[in-house]
Amino acid sequence: ASAPGPKAPAPAPAAAAPAAEAAPSKTPEAAQAPYAEAIATLRAMGYGADDELLAQVVANNEGDVGKCVTDLGQLSEWDTLLLDLEQMGFGDAARNRSALYKNKGSVKGAVRDLVEASRGAGPSA
Question: Measuring CA to CA, how many Å separate 109 from each of 1, 23, 40, 50, 112?
Fold first, then answer.
């Protein structure tokens, strides 16, 4: 009489196991598929000049092309800020744009990130 009791709960964990396996089955490629679509759409719209920045903008906006276009449009208004960074000695335009974007247009934040990145790269001589 006591044997049927323990057998009844046994199928429940077995049923839970496939559900647990279903969650981790998402591969990184599958998770990035919507982003790849968004990147391709933005490139077709003429936003493909800087792949690293484009990937950063798309990831930040979780693949929402409309939000990406807004952010990328805002970046075009930052030409004077990019010039300021260049005049300060930060000559990598792609990194400068990326740092400005990460810091929402803050030159101070961008400079901090650029300096930290250059320290992490080590001496060049």
Answer: 71, 37, 30, 21, 5
Contact at 8 Å (CB) between 107 and 84?
yes
**Can you say how many angstroms the Cα of residue 61 is from the centroid of all Cα atoms in its chain?**
8
* Nearest-angstrom CA–CA distance, 78 and 123: 30
DSSP state, 37?
H
Tell me the pTM: 0.59
3-state secondary structure of 3: coil
Q: Which of 37, 39, 74, 78 is nearest to 58 (CA)?
A: 39
In this prediction, residues 49-53 reach a mean pLDDT of 80
Distance between CA atoms of residues 39 and 21, nearest Å: 30
Quick check: 44 pLDDT over 60?
yes
Q: Quick check: 93 pLDDT over 70?
A: yes
